[in-house]
Amino acid sequence: MKTLIETIVSALVDHPDAVVVTVKEEADRIVYVLSVHKEDMGKVIGKQGRVAKAIRTVVYAAGSSQQKKIYLEISE
User: How many domains does the chain have?
Assistant: First the structure.
């Protein structure tokens, strides 16, 4: 899942080397924290959050086979 997020986001940003995904696994959920370069935040979020929503939709669909709830957070 981590590589899926990195692959999708790296294609969107100007600084693909600054894309970092960390995983926080808890008892009932998995949280993926996406960190990108400051200048690329707008590209990852998109107009009215459309790009971020699309990324989340793909991640949630890919993780639907797991027993835990999946979350994607975007941070600087």
Answer: 1
φ/ψ region of 46 (left if φ > 0, alpha if ψ in -120 to 50, else beta) reads left
Q: What is the pLDDT of residue 65?
A: 83
Give the sign of the dihedral formed by CA 32, CA 36, CA 41, CA 43. negative
> Is the Cβ–Cβ distance between 34 and 2 less than 8 Å?
no
Give the predicted TM-score (pTM) of the model: 0.89
CA 11 to the chain's CA centroid: 13
Average pLDDT over residues 25-47: 93
CATH number of the structural domain spanning residue 53: 3.30.300.20
Helix (H, G, I), strand (E, B) or coil at 28: coil
